[in-house]
Structure formats: C-alpha cells, structure tokens
Amino acid sequence: MTAFLALVARDLRLALRQGSDAALVVAFFVLAVVLFPFGVGPEPQLLARIAAGIVWVTALLAALLSLDRLFQQDYEDGSLEVIALAPLPLEAAVLAKCLAHWLTTGLPLAAVAPALAALLQLDGPGYLPLVLTMALGTPSLSLVGAVGAALSLGARRAGVLLSLLVLPLYIPVLIFGVAAVEQAVAGFAIRPHLLILTALLVAALPLAPWAAAAALRPALE
Amino acid sequence: MDALTHYLAMGGYARFVWPAYGIAVLVLGVMAVQSYRAWRRQHRLWSALEAARPQRRR
Amino acid sequence: MQRFANPGRFMRLSDGLMPWCAAGAVICLAVGLYLVLFVAPPDYQQGEAVRIMFVHVPAAWMASFVYGFLALASAVALIWRHPLADIAAQAAAPLGAGFTLLCLITGSLWGEPMWGTWWVWDARLTSVLVLFFLYVGYIALVNGFDDPTRGARAGAVLALVGVVNLPIIKFSVDWWNTLHQPASVFRLGGPTIDKSMLVPLLIMAIAFMLYFAALLMLRMRTAILASRVRAARLGEIEPMPEPSARPQAAGSVT
Q: A101: how many CB neighbours lie within 10 A of its CB?
C-alpha cells in the first residue's frame, strides 16, 4: 500500500513541479468551449440546449490531450522500467498513475466545468449533475485512456493513434454523462445514470490496469 | 427491351439499388485483388530467393 | 490446436482448402445474386429497394462475425502464444473493415429511399460506425510500430479491450437512441422475413462467409511467406524444407 501511495505522491509531485501541464489542459478546455458560441451563434436557447454536450465533449478532448503525459515521459527517461521492476505489481503501478493523472486532470476539469456551463447558459438544475457526473466519469476516462496510452507507447504518431483508439471507448461515459445533465434540466431523476457511470467506473478499475499492464510489458522488453 | 428498362428501373429505386450492388462489387473486388497482389509479390520474392540460393535438398 | 501450429502444415492445408472456398464463394455468389436480383419478390412496403438488404445484411453479419474472430484469435495469441493466431487476426482485420464499410454504405443507400435521409443515428448504424473505428484503430495500431512483434501484441490487447467494450458501447448507443428518437421502430425487411427472401439472404450470407474464408487463407499464406522471405534475407534460416526432408537438411542452421 505504501509503495502504491509513494508512486501516487511521486507522480503528483512531478505534475505539480511542471504545473503548466495541468494548467494547459484546463486552458484548452476553456478555449475550446468558448469557441462554440462563435461557431453556432450566441443565441441563449440554442446554447443552453447543447451546453451539456459541448462541455462533456471538450472535457473528453482535453483529457485525451493529457494522456500522453501518463507513460511517455517515464518511458523516455527509463523510469517506467524501474517502476515495472519494482515489487509493486505493474497493474497497481498503473492504477497509481491513473489516480495521480485524474487528480491533476479530471478533477480540475470537473471543477471548471460549471463555470463553462454558465458561459453556455446551462439551466440551473443541470449544474450539480454536471459536476457529479464529471467527477464520476473522469476517473473512467483516465483509466480507459491509460489503456490507450499504454498501447500506443512508442508507436509512430502515438498522439493521433491514441485519439483513434480511445475516443470510441469514451462514448458510453459521454452518453450517460450528458444524458444525466439533460434529464436533470428536464426535471427527471438521474439516479440510474449515476449508477451506470459508477458501474462503468467499477468495471474499469480492475480491467483497465490489467489491460494497460498487458500492453506495457512488450514495450518494456 | 421494355421489360429490361422496366427491370433496370427497379421500381424507381434504381439510383439506390444499383450503386449499392456496385459498391459491393467494388469493395469485395478490391479486397480480393489487393490480397492476391500481395500474395503475388511475396511469391515472386520467395521464388527469386529460392532460385538464387544453392539447393541444399538431397 | 498444437497440430496446426506449424506454419508449414497450415500452408499445405490452405493449399488444398482455399480453392474450394473460393469456388464455393463464386458459386454461392452467382446463385445468390441470381435469386436476389431476379427471383426474390419486391417487398410489400419497400418495393424493389429491399434488394439492397441482400447485400447490406450479410455484410453486417460478417462485420460482427469477423470482429469476434479477431478477438478470438487475439485471445489465443495472448494466452497460448499460438504462432498463427496473430497472423490470423491481422489478416482478418482489413476484411472486417471492408465488410463494415460496405454495411455502412449500403445502409446509407437503403436509408435514403426508406427513411428519406442518408444517415440516421439509429442504434444499429451508429454501433456499426463505432465498430468501423475499432477496426481502423486496430489496423493503425498494428502497423504503427517499427517492431512487428510489438504491433502484434498491442493489437491483440486492443482487440480484447474492444470486444469487451463493444457490448457496452452497443448498450449505451441503444439507450441513447431511445432517448432521442421517437418510438417509431424501423423494422427493416419486415417483422418476420418471408421464406422467399430468407433463402436468398442465407445463400448470400454463406457466399460472404466462404469469400472471407478464402481471402483469410490467402492473406495468412502471404503473411507466412513474407516472414519466410524476411528470415531468408537475414540469412538466419534456409528456405523451410518439407517436413519429410527435414532430417536430411543437416547443413541448415536450425
């Protein structure tokens, strides 16, 4: 357990030292959302209708951008091999890195999302569900993204390849995250959506590190 | 001739039905041709290598 | 399965099997096309446009089937390290992508006269679109590495991840579709399919399957031959002798 926490702490320290990484992700998130009114027009009713979708999709893309940081740097300077050789199982190490990644990417995105939703005139009942679903969904994004990052590690055009691999896998989280917000705005209960998002997270927690570790091992041979 | 034109018109849906079959022929054809050409390429390389190599078979 | 691990044996097996599959495919296609284009009656509701179904539905079945095959081969490759499994998976992927693309395009051509639009975010069409991206992602990943072994291993893991995700994605898209579409259900081809349409459909499906089998074997043979060419060029081994001749190849490195 201590080795696990030590790895999380290490990744957090590194991320905070290079503070710009997390800040850049949030900056992209903000900029991309702000582009939409320029694209579709500032009419409040239209924006409110598509606000949930825009915020979620751009959050997805922002999370995608931050994924190469997950393994790439450690791979390049050799620390990934050291991590793999350590007593901590590779699956646990992946989980630790995912946790650190989420704390420095998903969580900030979820925190900033309500402000951006306000820019897009999201209706009142939608804000809390937005934060809740993003807090619940972004860990899954980090986990599934880790699989993609591990698979594309060392490939040519790894960045683009990563997007191609990961975006289809993000669709379920996107669907239920947006639906929850829209249902809340329409006045319906969102418990089923939250339960499904939780189920997706619970499924991803064991499976994603396992798949990512399986993908990392050939890269480290 | 009339019957043929009537048939080809496919009850008014001709511009959907025939392109659909055309695309099917195209896709299936391209897959087959590409696979075969890849095979031919490797086979030629292999034969060239075998011919250049002194035969060790007894 | 171990008996078939020998590439040489596969080459001999496919040498015999492939022409039969190819011939079978041609015959079934010919019979199927004749039935479909000349014998099957026009649909009560859809008229002659229903003939697109006879290409669209077998393509859809193959798209799903080949992905299942891809996942199975990948599982065998990862778990048992069967030497032919990776080759089978990589040979199947482009074929699966082709069937999926065909399904999408014919679906679109069927949709325009039926639903009045080239594309509909119908649960099935959307899921097939996602499936297409899964195929493309797999092919891109396998070919994205300079080291082919690395590409093969990564591809195998991706295929398994994809096959686990596919039901989840399908479920989500299905659910999402009911959320946004009115309750009208488009029953393509009618709720129960008449025998006069079912038989040509099945023949076309068999034709597509035999076609897939024939091309799969051809592509696997090409891959095996390519690896022999590579190895021979590196001078590591000699041209693989026939197993009966192996005891006499005393001078070879192996």
A: 30
Tokens of A156: 């040519």
> Is pLDDT at C40 greater than 50 in this prediction?
yes
Q: pLDDT tens digit string along A50-64? A: 999 999 999 999 999
> Virtual CA dihedral for B22, B28, B33, B34, nearest 10 degrees?
120
Residue pointed to by tokens 């990589």: C90
Structural domain count of chain B? 1
Task: Give the pLDDT band (50/70/90) at residue C4.
Answer: low
User: Is the model's pLDDT at B58 over the cut of 50?
Assistant: no
Chains with at least 3 CB pairs less than 8 angstroms from chain B: C
The domain spans of chain C are 18-40+49-183+194-238
From chain C, the residues in CB contact with A176 under 8 A are 172
What does the pLDDT average to over C90-110? 94
pLDDT greater than 80 at residue A185: yes
Helices marked H in chain A — which ranges? Answer: 2-17, 20-40, 44-66, 68-77, 79-85, 90-104, 106-119, 127-151, 158-186, 191-220
Q: Is residue B57 part of a domain?
A: no
One-character DSSP codes across C60-87: HHHHHHHHHHHHHHHHHHHHH--HHHHH
The parent domain of residue B35 ranges over 2-52
Closest CA to C109 of A99, B14, A140: B14
**Which residue numbers of B have CB closer than 8 Å to C's CBs?**
10-13, 16-17, 19-21, 23-24, 27-28, 30-32, 35-36, 38-39, 42-43, 45-46, 49-50, 53, 56-58
- Please, are residues C106 and C191 in contact by the beta-carbon 8 Å criterion? no
B58 within some domain: no
Answer whether B35 sits within 8 Å of C219, measured CB to CB. Answer: yes
For position C185, what pLDDT does the model report?
Answer: 44
The pTM score is 0.86
Spatial contact of C140 and B44, defined as CB atoms under 8 Å apart: no
A94/A209 Cα distance (integer angstroms): 6
Rounded to an integer, the average pLDDT of C101-125 is 85
Complex ipTM value: 0.86
